[in-house]
Design a protein that fits this description.
The protein has helices at 25-38, 86-94, 117-134; strands spanning 20-22, 44-49, 52-57, 60-66, 69-71, 75-80, 98-100, 107-112. The termini are far apart. The protein has three helices and eight strands. It is globular. With 138 residues, it is of the alpha+beta class. Strands 2-3-4-6-8-7 form a six-stranded antiparallel beta sheet.
């Protein structure tokens, strides 16, 4: 007696996962400073996520700070836009500290090189925070 078993569909090859590397003490310090400021903003909550501190405005994630792991050797804050407004995208393209699609669609990274970069990082984080307010919930 033969049974009609459904045939399994072949899986699409997935993109390779980015390597998460340990972050420096300096990067942890910068992240802690940024997180302490962001947690004073209305509706912001931080949760652990794969060696990062994911920052939410309500139910929407808007950023991630490296806690114990990071993408690559540099100190990068992850910014989430869904989508990034066109005028802001043009500005991001001219900013050498911002890189796109890290780790995926809608994500950008802002590289920190010194304490002086924290102010600019907060400006970009504020844009993500405002974008999370305007966007649709998922």
């Amino acid at each position: 007696m033969k049974t009609n078993k459904p045939t399994a569909k072949p899986k699409k090859p997935s993109a390779p996962r980015p390597k998460l590397l340990p972050v420096s003490e300096e990067t942890r310090r910068w992240s802690a400073l940024l997180e302490s400021e962001l947690l004073t903003w209305p509706g912001v909550v931080a949760k652990r996520m794969f060696g990062f501190r994911a920052l939410y405005r309500g139910k929407r994630i808007f950023a991630a700070l490296p806690s114990s792991r990071g993408f690559g050797p540099d100190a990068s804050v992850l910014l989430k836009f869904d989508p990034m407004p066109p005028a802001l995208l043009q500005r991001a393209k001219s900013e050498n500290r911002i890189h796109g699609n890290t780790p995926g669609k809608g994500w950008f990274s802002f590289t920190l090189n010194s304490d002086a970069d924290l102010h600019n990082a907060l400006e970009w984080l504020n844009r993500c925070y405002e974008s999370a307010r305007k966007g649709r919930s998922r």
